Amino acid sequence: MNPFNERKYILIGLTILIALVYTVRLFFVQVVEDKYKLDAKNQALRYVTDYPPRGYVYDRNGKLLVFNQIAYDLMVIPKQAKNIDTALFCKLLGITEESYIRRMKIAKQAPNSPIKPSIFEKQMTAETYAALQEKIYKFKGFFVQTRTIRKYPDRIAAHLLGYIGEVDKEVTEKNPYYHEGDYIGISGIEKTYEEYLRGKKGTRIVMVDVHNVTKGSFQNGKYDTASVPGQYLTSSLDEEVQAYGEQLMAGKKGGIVAIDPETGEILCVISSPGYDPNLLVGRDRSSNYGLLLSDTSYGRLPLYNRALMAYYPPGSTFKLINGLVAQQEGVLFPETRYPCARGYPVMGGKPGCHQHASPLDLQQAVAQSCNSYFSYTFRSIIDQKKFSTTEEGYRVWRNYVLSFGVGRKINTDLPHELRGMVPSPEYYDKYFGKGSWKSSTIVSLAIGQGELGITPLQMANIMCIMANRGYYYVPHILKSIGDKKLVPHSYNERNYTLVEKKYFDIMVDGMEQVVAAGTGRIAKYDDTTHICGKTGTAQNPHGDNHSVFVAFAPKDHPKIAIAVLVENAGYGAEWACPIASLLIEKYLTRKVTRPALEKKMVEADLIHKVYVKHKEH
To answer: Which of 169, 192, 378, 504 is the most exposed place for a label (fewest CB within 10 A)?
Structure first.
């Protein structure tokens, strides 16, 4: 065969093969694979994130606490934004041309891209949106994207509900779900249950003409992905009690926590001064946050959650724990009596005490809140002969205290909970020197003073333990998510203290006497509801004493456990006790029968009063 003809057939064969490959590939691109159509039409298509509505939040009775309202974000694709009438554009938005140039520069830089949409103006008002929408066709590369922002109809429970804000770089790097401009729960319920409340984003592909006018969805939405709305959340919060508690705490600094001891469900969390949660929504969120953060007048600090984060000396309320521990250790009995000479006689009357009959037994000591009695009690625990050193005795005592949920996190579902302070032996070794401290050195712990620091949440949880005679459920705000009860199993488990049930009854009887005939008499509002409580006056090294009252009610089958602390307000019976009493009555009966007491609590402005007093001195 002619070699030339052979080469000719080879070349013809290769040409046919190449033509066949291109034909098949072209068929695949044009007929089989649609994504290349999308790329070809990319300049005429716009990818719009379909943000889902965030889940609503309700109180335990179905009252709406948080819902959504529409917001409008102006988006820009820098590469498409050409021949813009910047003067008209800036006039419509109410911004300067310098601001326009700066924002466009940011939109082009990493992590943004000239070919990807990014936020140019967030959360426009409805008026701005309407004015811009009429002329949007003049501004190629710009379009409006809707999303929802939060609204709080009752303007309450800011610390508990929390707020949402834009994600930062750290979040986007760790979680691929979030992108620049997305919102995320920052605090409160919004933060803890973000995964359920946020829903799932979708994407819409829309066609636009050369005038930047939307012409409808691409291929009837064939390539769209639908967003999935967030799930609604039912909280354990009682809206009526929460609102009433905030009303009672107006003009005061401090915290209130109320819990249902039968379930661990949180009924209210109040930190005062507080703020309107609507201030941290929308365009003004950043500026309002700055104003709230800088509000330090009279020590207000409205963003500071005193109920979960502030450490307070518990004062006389802590005597309950010492009485229980001493019984468990076999060094205290109901009939045990100790003398009191207006103070602890062993140490020259320190700590001091008020006038009352002496000596007292255990129940009477609780009812009369005798400092001397519990000083004897505390030292009898630490100084037992079975302990070779004070440190050994103190470690045993401290372990008991920790079992009451004090000095450690309770692991509630509200973020930013702190552990409180129960000093370790190493703390005292460092402060006094190893082997240089005795039970007498730290006897102030007997009456809830010294280095102890407890949050109002922990105080309320101790009341749950007293109400349940020895155990508690982890306090939590979640009742259900959507139509399913998704409360973690751990919230249904009993957490027992190291003290046996049999030792609680005598302490509870003493607490009942506090309200029936002792320092908490003002808490009694009828003859049928037996309230068990304990007043406390917590010494404050930075100013006037704090007013403290803890309680649960009714005595049998308790429905509410509560802790109230009012900063710099003096005796527990004067302010904390009546506030707690009014809240207990409100929750159990849904009404208040003492209008004069209510008026006094609501109208009192202790913040200003304390400030004026200190200024005069």
So the answer is: 169
